[in-house]
Specification:
The protein is an alpha+beta fold. The protein is 32% helix and 24% strand. Strand 3 (62-68) and strand 4 form a beta hairpin. The longest helix is centred in the middle third of the chain and has 15 residues, at 122-136.
């Protein structure tokens, strides 16, 4: 087999199957939770995207999530989100907290949902969601998207973007919510009403969602600097 023929195998089904047989994917295999929500660009709340989080809990106080635009096999990798407990968030310096958003409204409104397989019934989903939502209600996220998929659907162009979530009714685009609910068979309003039965009153920590009060947020702008070398 010549070099050209060998190169043509790359990315083929036989090559991928062989790779799965001889390589480990331990960090990926550690993912054990799929959450679906919506993100908005920190400096442009009118730009919103559906975000599928595939999460690993490294400790009770720290989760890390890979974010895709869907749960399809060919889903596009949008970015990452780090999730911390209130205990950890309260230790962050003030100049760091500007990057973080709360999850209180996402959870209480029903926007943040445990995404289950299509054949799994609500009788299974509801008990599985309860401990997750009780925990996530009091957490904070730092989210960076490296793919602006709403404006560049084919390639990840431009600088990364800080992303935020929502803090009140009237912010999230209802067409996105309706499309998600229709596709998944979920009901965001139903989730909201159900969670009112078990979620406790919670006052989020100060310093998160700073854009709400200031009307300003972080934008990552490319800056050309001299390269440091020996």
């Amino acid at each position: 087999m010549n070099s050209q023929t060998k190169q043509a195998l790359y990315g083929s089904l036989p090559y991928n199957v062989a790779g799965s047989a001889i390589m480990d994917f331990k960090p990926v295999n550690a993912v054990h939770q799929h959450l679906c929500a919506f993100h908005s660009y920190a400096v442009d709340q009118t730009r919103q995207v559906e975000a599928h989080h595939f999460c690993t809990h490294l400790t009770p106080d720290f989760h890390q999530c890979i974010i895709y635009d869907s749960d399809a096999p060919d889903a596009k990798l949008l970015g990452i989100e780090y999730i911390v407990s209130e205990k950890v968030f309260s230790t962050l310096p003030e100049n760091e907290r500007v990057y973080w958003h709360s999850h209180k409204y996402e959870v209480e409104s029903g926007l943040l949902q445990l995404h289950v397989k299509s054949m799994v019934s609500g009788l299974v989903t509801d008990p599985a969601e309860k401990p997750a939502m009780l925990e996530l209600q009091r957490t904070y996220g730092k989210t960076i998207h490296t793919w602006q998929i709403d404006t560049s659907p084919d390639l990840p162009l431009g600088p990364p973007s800080l992303m935020m979530s929502f803090t009140a009714d009237g912010q999230v685009r209802q067409d996105l919510v309706h499309a998600r609910d229709t596709r998944t068979g979920q009901d965001t309003l139903e989730r909201r009403l159900l969670r009112q039965q078990y979620l406790h009153d919670y006052e989020k920590a100060g310093g998160s969602d700073q854009w709400v009060e200031t009307g300003q947020s972080i934008s990552f702008e490319p800056v050309i600097r001299p390269v440091k070398s020996d």
